[in-house]
Each structure stands twice: as structure tokens, then as C-alpha cells.
Amino acid sequence: EGQNVITLQQVDSTNEYLKKELSKSRPLTEGTVILAVHQFAGRGQQGATWFSEPGRNLTFSLLLMPTFLNPKHQFRLTVAISLAIARWLEQLLSVGVKIKWPNDIYVGDRKIGGVLIENILKGKAWKSAIVGIGINVNQTDFPAAIRRRITSIKDYLREDSDIGELLTALCRSIEREYLALKQGQTEAQLASYKQRLYRLGERHPFLVSGVKVDGILLDITETGRLQIDFGGHVADFDIKEVAFVI
Ligand code: BTN
Prior knowledge:
Number of strands: 14
Shape: globular
Number of helices: 5
Strand order of the largest sheet: 1-2-5-9-8-7-6
Order of helices and strands: EHEEEEHEEEEHHHEEEEE
Bound molecules: biotin
CATH topology of the largest domain: BirA Bifunctional Protein, domain 2
Number of domains: 2
Helix content: 25-40%
Radius of gyration: 18 Å
Distance between the termini: 36 Å
């Protein structure tokens, strides 16, 4: 993968761009990467905005066609991608990397990157998956209000990194995990994902239907729901139903 990289100097969102290209029924091959130098309307999860200083970070979308995966097992793709990013960063930075459910990438208590996967289904079958990835690379200037919760590769390496080289290495890591997923190594990947799960087994405040409640993050279910123990009462949630209070 990543052999087919299309670099755009300026684009609203690489996810949107890829989606539009696909709707023109362009025959794009699996593994196509859309890399943005300046992404000016980047999107995050839950309708959030993804801000990135022009030319300083990794903002790209990767086209996958995981037809081997039952759409009800979509979470397995989330696991494979998050794990690939975590493993690549651990090697690069020589630090432990955490995955904040479902797919925020953390170093310590700070977010270094995020993933936005958009699955395109045709009825009950896969058409494609647009895997959007944003990693903070050379940016060290962030809005004061969020600075203590954000980090970048430069915070650790203390020098600028080459975006193209990082992209190549990250795509190699993604290819490895994607092939493992294809070969059915789901259990092992889920175990490695859980090993890195941010706040696993810890008491933490969560926002549930607008109410702040303390709970212990117990586990992740098969389908990727977050399981929390509220003092003996165990419940599980999807991303729209629960948030970490930070
Ligand atoms: C999140 O943490 O909420 C997910 C952020 C995902 C950002 C990436 S940057 C490349 C791709 N294009 C987008 O518009 N978003 C993703």
C-alpha cells in the first residue's frame, strides 16, 4: 500500500476528496493515498473539526476495500488501524503509546493523532472504507486552551521530520496489520489494542446522557462498545452515548 500517493497542495478534507472521487465512479485501486499539504476544513469524529497548520503535519486518507470483513465486524478495522499507528509511533518515539477508545492516539495524557474511518456500504456489502488519519508532526504551537492535552512528534524528537518519510513508514505498518486482519488474526490484534487502551481498569469520570458519572473502564465488547462498571452496575455504550470527561 501507499505506492499510489496523490499529493494535493490544498484541499478541504482528504476524506471528502476521496469520497467525491469514488462517487464519480473513478476506478481507484485499494491502497490509494490522498495526502494533503494544507487541509483547510479537516473533519474529526462526532462532527468535530480537525485543525492542522499547513505543511507541518500528516493529514491523509487511505482507500481500503475490506470485502473479507463482515460489515458487522467493522470495529476490527478500527482495531487494526489504531494498532498500526500505535506500533509505528512506539518505534519512532521510543515511548509507550495509548489508544483512547475508539481510535484516538495518545502519548501520556496528550493526543497526538486521530482517525476517522468512513465505511461505504452497498446494501449489506462493503464498497470501500475511507481511512482518514491525522498525526501532529512538526507543529508545536497549539491553541493555549488545549496545549496541555495535545502533543506532536516534534515534542519528542526535538527536530522536524520529513512528512513523506513518515507516511511511507506508517503505510508499511498499516499494510502489516491489514494483512494480519485479512488472515484472521483478530484475537491477537484485539488483545494488543486492549494492552494499549487508555484508562483501562481505572476509575474515570464519564459523561453519560449529559450526566457526569464515575466508573471503571472494564473492557471493550466484540462489537467495539465501551464497557463501564458503575460500582457493580455494568453497562456498555457506543461512541454517541458516552464520552470521557477530561
Ligand atoms: C479525530 O480525532 O476526531 C479524527 C481526526 C481525523 C483527521 C484526519 S486528517 C485526514 C482526514 N481528513 C479529514 O478530514 N479528517 C481525517
